[in-house]
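Re-running the complex after MR caught last week's input typo. The corrected sequence lines follow. Everything else is unchanged.
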Amino acid sequence: MLLTAFAIFTDGLVYAAYLFVVAIGLTLIFGVMKILNVAHGSFYAFGAYGAAIAVGLYFNQGWPAAGGFLLMLLVAMVIGLVLGLIIERGLLRLVYGKDEIVVVLVTYAAFLILEDVIILLWGTNSYALYQPLVIGGNVEVSSLILSGYDIGLVVFAAALALLVTWALKRTRYGRLLTVVIFDRETAAAFGINVTVVYTVTFVLGAMLGALGGAVMAPKISVTLGIGVEVIVLAFAVVAIGGMGSIEGALVGALIVGLCRAAAVHLVPQLELFVIYVVMALVLVVRPYGLFTRAQPRKI
Amino acid sequence: MWTRTNVLGLLAFVALEIAAPALPAWLVSLATIAFANALVVLGLVILWRAGLVPFGQALFYATGAYAVALLGRYTGIRDVFLLLAIAAVASGCVAFLVGFLLARYREIFFAMLSLALSMILYGVLVKTETLGSTDGFHVEAATFFGHTPQEGGRELAMFWLVVAISALAAFLVSLYFRTVAGALAVPVRDNEIRIEFLGLSVDRLIHFKLVLAGTLAGVGGALAAFSVGHVDPNMSYWTTSGGFVFVTILAGAGSVAAAFVASFLFELIRSIAVDILPGTWQIFLGSVLLLTILFLPEGLGSLATRFKRRGQAKAP
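Corrected-run output:
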């Protein structure tokens, strides 16, 4: 009994870490730009493919392990930079000011295109990146075997949460961002270059999405369609927490992660849709998520 | 009643019904599925007029399809009209129930909540063995007035039925657009508070539109199930909903006929693109969607009015 509870807790925590890393980029972009970025699923998929191939090659050379993990970060950043710039400068710039829902559709179109670009670049094979799991090893806690990589993932997600919160609250750029989140027009009136803030935010969000894919690459089989699933999951997490809220993404990820782990261990039939049930329930009680600012009704 | 659009629609309907036996078989089956899907799109047009884009309309589509398939399998009901009526009522009821929740939301939250609800159905379908799990199951051949059409005649009978139902639905929806509730869609999109000051409830208006759209989607799903002869959980997956949204954007909110034209074009494009670019036709699809949003933001339906306006502009 206690063991099951502990297993649910650890599994939930690992899953929550993964969800948080994926959702934070999505919520950041939404908070600043009010764009629900469907192409985020593609960033994730690109990150996973890039990491699986580049880091796999690196480890095959037998070079030191630490460099492999650094390379993971680097790959995600490069992919985020390239894709983020292309989509924001090339595409989204054209539709700023249109209905939110139209912009969602534009990112949906980008998502469709990127899904096939993956096929063109990497074919329909699946890739596996197993070395980080081997390097991470296993830890045994009272007959429960935990993967070292999973523990690292949780630590990494926690560090990321702290880093992002610190950057938003304490750095100059973070404060400017907070202003833009609060009110874009007022921010522009006070001389903040909102265009640049938008581009930087989108690239950062894309990097975080790719990073989510990169750190998950060792844990999944990198294959077609991974972006489709992740985007719906990330939506659910962000909607539960409140769109645009970092704390919300963290709490949402924890709720979803723990609920899913509980379902997997106790009622496996519910595994696939427990997340959406939780999301629907939360939205019934708090229509705009747990951590949202009250919005004035505009006449 | 006898407006020019209605007469043109009636002519198109009669022409399609008469021409059907002469058309090649691939075109008939393509048009059947396209028009069945166009019913779903018609429902989305109703919502899109009010600024709502559900990313989970597949919920009702799959409800209609599975209602037909399950009844055919577990009961002796084979009559196509009875099955369609049951599918319509079933999906209408589902829409009525989830409407209590959905009608409170707008914009992105509406889109996402509807997505979540459809994913719940997807999860249920995939996990339940009696509902066919991931493979889905076969739909029993339907009977028309107690008479089962032969192999070749089945497709033709389905086509006639789909076109007839499409014509009826198009007519009824265009009537609805002229009622007060229908005409209030654009004001809902622009400013809800004004409508409430008129003494009307926006939530109730949207709830009604949801039931309409859900019923249409259910009928579309049921017809698709008949014509494909198979149902599977992918009918409720969010990419299916995404496809419907795609066609809605292509069609635009301006015209009822555009929903059918766009749906037909979509199926045609898809079958051609799958032939030419197997495996990478989504690039093509995404590009068409982008070009539509950028250069034809009001959809195909706006082309007709654009020509009309140009004609009127000539008169001083």
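None of the earlier attempt is carried over here. Residues 39 and 110 of chain A are 6 Å apart (CA to CA). Chain A touches chain B through 45 residues (CB under 8 Å).
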